[in-house]
Amino acid sequence: MIATLVIAAFMILAMAGAIYAALVPHTLHCIIGLGLTLFGVAGIYLYLGSPFVAAMQILIYIGGISVAMVFALMLSVSLAKKMKHSEIKVILSSIAAILFLAVMARLIMTTEFPLREEPAGAAAWGVEQIGHGFLTTYSPLFIGLAICLSVAIIAAVLVARREADKS
Amino acid sequence: MSLSAFLLVSLVLFSAGLVAIMSRRNLVTILVGIELMLNAASINFMAFNYYTAVDPVVGQIIVLVIIGLAAAEVAIFLSILMVLYRARHDVDVEEIREIRG
Amino acid sequence: MNPAILAIVVIFTPLVAFATAMLFCMKAHRIAQGLILGGGAVSVVGAFLLLLGGPSETQSIVWLSSGSLELSFGFMFDGLSLSFGAVVALITFLVQVYSIGYMHHDPAKTRYFALLGLFGWAMLGFVYAVDLLQALIFWELVGLASFFLIGFWYEKPSASAAARKAFLLTRIGDTGLLIGILLIINISGMAHIPALLDAETGLTTMVSEGTLTLLVLLIFMGIMGKSAQFPLHTWLPDAMEGPTPVSALLHSATMVAAGVFLFARLHPLFMASETAILVVLCIAIFTALMSATIAMVETDLKKVLAYSSIGQLAFMLAALAAGGLLAGILHLILHAVFKALLFLCAGSYIHHFETNDMREIGRRGGRRMRWTTAGLVIGGASLAGLPPLAGFFSKEEVLASLSHGGYHLIWFLALFAAFLTAYYTFRMVFFIILPDRPLEADATVHDSSPVILGPIIFLTIATVLGGLILGPLAAILLLDVPHHSLLSMLPAILCALAGVFVAWWDFGRSRATRRGFVGAVPVLHRLFSRKWYVDDVYQAVFARFIQLMATVLHRVEVDLLDGGADRLADVTRWTGGWTARLQSGWVQAYIASGVVVVALAGYFLGSR
Amino acid sequence: MGIPILSLILLCPVLATAAVMLVPAGRDQMVRWISVAFSLLALILSAIVWMAYDQTVGGLQFEEIVPWVPAVGITWHMAVDGFGVLLVMLNSLVWFTGVLTMWSLAYRVKEYFAFMTLLVVGVYGVFMTQDLFLLFFFYEIAVVPMYPLILIWGSTRKEYAAMKLMLYLLVGSALLFPALLAIYHVAGLGTFSMVELGRHTFGIEFQKFVYPFVYLGFGVLAGMFPFHGWSPSGHVAAPSAVSMLHAGVLMKLGAFGILVVGIRLLPEGATYWAPLFAVLAACGILYGAFVALRQTDFKFVIGFSSVSHMGIVLLGLNLGVLGVASADAFNGAVFQMFAHGIMTALFFSTVGYIYDKAHTKTISDFGGLGSQMPRAVTIFIIAGLCGAGLPGLASFWAELLVFLAAMKTYPILGAAIVAGLVLTAMYILRVFQQAFFGPRNPKWDGLTDMVGWELLPRAILVAVLILFGFFPNLILGLIDPTTQILMEGF
């Protein structure tokens, strides 16, 4: 019962953060909203039996990505200020999104999912299994990810630096 | 808590991301929208992983990959953003319309 | 020695000489000349050895097999091949010797000699061929050699135009020939000549007479092209643009005779169709008369000889069509000898005076070239059919075979043609030996060099003695020697003498008008000097038609097919231009429309 | 399974492409030597395949089967029958001589040879593979490099020509791809193997429906009238070696595709449509010849002559399907693919040489060129005579066999096509007379004639034409058994 309440709180946190981030005019507030959502999602992961992924979510997403975004914001001063915000665009895109949401929600509610007998326990899919999976069956994925990350970082550095040289 | 509840949460996140992408003029907030959508996808993976998948490792691995890719994406995105900012002193997407036909 | 090996030597030595000269001796004229002459000599010796060996079995190997089709490559050693092969090799060699003198100053003579080698190979290959397709291949190669040799001086536009015309007109005939051969292969499944000619199992037993008529007439189209019969004859006079030895070799003695040879080769097939015989006779006699009339008004020495070749080839075809196999072949061989002689004499004059106009040659003292003039007179007399020269015997046989065959009208017309032949031949002779004004004392006129005179003298002797081959030829062809009474020979002799006399009256005597009796009828004179308007009709009808077709189809290509595709592209581009305006470059609008579309799709697909 | 010789041949251009790309910029000579070395190697291997191919047995040989994507039944299945051996040889010859022809290229050499060898990869793949998916895959590999090759190294309205070519060929592919998928799907065997698919009998209605897609799709590449529009302008715009590969080999891909996919898999559909397509092909033969008569550009003449000559190939294929004339039609068609390939390669190689020297391709600009460039002119004349179907050169036999079949199946049509040979002679002679004969034009006195190595590639092609012109059985012996097997399918 308590678990249900807790997860419901996390879900609401996630949704509220997302909506806040989507609608709030100020860029910094927007990132804060994202941070809230990420935190809520981490809670959901925890409930879904994966403490490791939840930890990663907090470490990388909240600790890394959000912070990087804030830094970027700080580096370019004028970005931090409030941007022009057109109400009509927000309303139109909200209508489109709600349309989408309604259709998808109806789909979700009417679909029969082939559920498993009983949800797997945390023991069956702990960190060990993840590591094993990454190093055996899914090793190409792992390697690919590694390459992608290093390339992205090198590219990011290069892109930013070359322009700096020019200026 | 049932599977549908998680799916609905992820749908809300996704829709919020859509709104952000469609309505904002600031590249940073658009990035936020994208992150929201990625998270929505991750939630779906985890939920299906928990409720239906045969091998529960798959979902987690995919979510980890998504997190990694998101990190890479943000790195690139932000560096481009910095360059763009330096070049144009603006990151308003309404002004960046060079692919216009 | 195995005749097949000998035949390979005879045929392929000129090819080897040709290839070697073309590939390695372009600068070394003397070596090339030596190679080609050596090849020619080997061919002559080989061909005469084959002739002395007498007829023997056909030999062939399978050359090509595709599905049920089998074509062979090999040699025939019957009297026809052996005798004509020897004549071809001999005249080729003589002309090669003659060319040493004639082409002495030409800078490109290696190419010239090499092409003579190519021609020798092709012509000999044709003569000994055992398979219709093999014959066709060498027949085309002969045409190719002719193309290159006519256009040898390719920098002269008239020469290259003449080469092109020769190739195209013979090609038109060859189309018929090829269709005929293809039909024969389709009907009988073979192209092996002895098998096709077989009286019990050959082609004649397989098809109805109507079909056979069609087949042989298609083949005759090829013969018309190659042997320059009306209406495909106009290339031959133009072909005189080539060097004179080439005219002597190809366009009088051997290549044009290939058509007649093919007719003789397939004689039994033609004999099996009455209609075909009549068609051939009509065409032949018309050609003979027409060419003779044109020759009567022509002043170009070589062209007179060219038209006389056309006429004599028509005589051969007429004789063969009337059933006189021996007569046709005899005239083929003897005509080759004396016509080569006439051309070589003409070449000797042209080489010296550098003009083709026989009146001018006469005025400038042509008759002072004594040996050449002797050759010309003897050759001319032979062409006119005066006894006892070679031409008399063969023409006698031709006329006899026409009257034996019962074609009396044709016989009569042929007599008239013979009269005209004697007339224009001696018109030519009198123009040269009896010029219209007295000769100046010009010491520069002298006779040609020994290499030129040698072949002329050899051929003069051959022309005088040519009548003697009648008996041996009949023996090798396994035919009977016909006996004619003196009375039956009389009309021909009288015609020839009449022709000579009228020619003397018009051109020879001191008070002659030198216009000829045709000059009295302007209409005819114009008709003859415009060559019966055949070329003009070609120009006006066929050439224009083909040009028109090409132009129309070119427009179709440019405007309709290609242009249509371009219009389609324009429409696409225009549509693209319009739709591009929707591309505002405003990414968010794209996303929004995407979302709406997905939502709608989800609604409709999900509601099922 | 012994040495996978077919994969080795295919590996040659692949390695050549890779090696050429790895050469440092500016080392053009090295690029050329690499290309020539690999193409020579491929030529030798092709010759070995020809020698080792067992002609008494026929059928597919040198099979290599390695599953690749087993889930949908894609297999690395390489094998050649008699046709394949012949066409692989053709490709090797044209590649080798093409590299030599482009020896003097100086502009962006590295990229040029990389694209060209990539094209060669595709062509080899199509001729060797027995897998429908791979066939399409290689087909596209062969087609796509044409665009940059024409666009960057071309001449004479190159943007237009490149775009037109690409659009035509893509339309062809668009017709083809659904047809191939339909064949895969309807057979329901779960395999793309053409050997397996060939054993399956498709419904007659299905065959009738799908065959035109296959025929048109491949036919566009084969320069099929009236969808040949891309080919003359493409040939004109492309650099010489690309024209060589293009007209010499690439157009054969279309005909080969019709043969192995259309006719082999859908025999009844082919039979149903053959009369129509045969008549179209015959129209193409005459049409190409007529239009060539009016052209003023060397390469346009050759381009339209290609339309005409490829018409003979297509006519042969359709007549073969009708089956009245036993094996001759197929034999003739395949022979013509080879003969025309060599002949056109020779044409473009020589015209390319003249163009490189004189910087013009307009026929009337020349005149009397025979005096200045006797060797180049001689070689062009040999190619031209081959085009005119002169006996003693390879195309004569090919045309003869097709004409034989045409005379047997449709006598009137056959006679018309044979008469069309006169037109061919006319346009060829017109070129000879206007460009090569006539008075010497002092404007071109400075041009140098071919020497040494420039002569080599052309001499090889001439030698091939003459060799098979006199010994047609060398080719017929190779392809006849395969044709016999093909004929059993009807």
Keywords:
heterotetramer, B: 101 residues, mainly alpha, Helix Hairpins, 3 helices, 77% helix, elongated, D: 490 residues, two-stranded antiparallel ribbon, 2 strands, 75% helix
Strand content of chain B: under 5%
**Multimeric state of these chains?**
heterotetramer
User: What is the helix tally of chain B?
Assistant: 3
Average pLDDT of chain B, to the nearest integer? 83
The tally of helices of chain D reads 20
Q: Any idea how many domains of chain B?
A: 1
Q: Please identify the top-level CATH class of chain B.
A: Mainly Alpha
Strand order of the largest sheet of chain D: 1-2
Give the helix level of chain B as a range of percent.
over 70%
Beta-strand residue fraction of chain D: under 5%
Low-pLDDT sequence parts of chain D: none
Terminal CA distance of chain B reads 49 Å
Number of strands of chain B: 0
Low-confidence stretches of chain B: none
Give, in order, the helices and strands of chain D. HHEEHHHHHHHHHHHHHHHHHH
Verbal overview:
- The complex is a heterotetramer of chains A (167), B (101), C (608) and D (490).
- By secondary structure, chain A is an all-alpha fold.
- Helix content of chain A is 80%, strand content 0%.
- Chain A has 2 domains: 109 residues, Up-down Bundle (Four Helix Bundle (Hemerythrin (Met), subunit A)); 43 residues.
- The longest helix of chain A has 28 residues.
- The radius of gyration of chain A is 20 Å and the shape is globular.
- Chain A starts with a helix and ends with a helix.
- In chain A, 32% of the residues are buried.
- The mean pLDDT of chain A is 82.
- Chain B is 77% helix and 0% strand.
- Chain B has 101 residues and is mainly alpha-helical.
- In chain C, strand 1 and strand 2 form a beta hairpin.
- Chain C is globular.
- The N and C termini of chain C lie far apart (95 Å).
- Chain D has 490 residues and is mainly α.
- Chain D has 20 helices and 2 strands.
- Chain D has a two-stranded antiparallel sheet.
- Chain D starts with a helix and ends with a helix.
- The interface between A and C is small, with 13 and 10 residues.
Short overview:
The complex is a heterotetramer of chains A (167), B (101), C (608) and D (490). Helices cover 77% and strands 0% of the residues of chain B. Chain C is mainly α.
Topology:
The complex is a heterotetramer of chains A (167), B (101), C (608) and D (490).
Chain A: H1 2-23, H2 27-47, H3 51-75, H4 77-80, H5 87-110, H6 127-135, H7 139-166
Chain B: H1 3-23, H2 27-51, H3 57-88
Chain C: H1 3-24, H2 29-53, E1 56-66, E2 69-77, H3 79-102, H4 109-128, H5 132-150, H6 157-188, H7 193-197, H8 209-226, H9 235-238, H10 244-253, H11 257-265, H12 267-271, H13 274-297, H14 301-321, H15 325-353, H16 358-363, H17 370-384, H18 390-405, H19 408-433, H20 450-465, H21 470-476, H22 486-508, H23 522-529, H24 534-580, H25 587-606
Antiparallel strand pairs in C: 1-2
Helix pairs in contact in C: 1-2, 1-4, 2-3, 2-4, 3-4, 3-10, 3-15, 3-20, 4-5, 5-6, 6-8, 8-11, 8-13, 10-14, 10-15, 11-14, 11-15, 13-14, 13-19, 13-23, 14-15, 14-18, 14-19, 15-17, 15-18, 15-20, 17-19, 17-20, 18-19, 18-22, 19-22
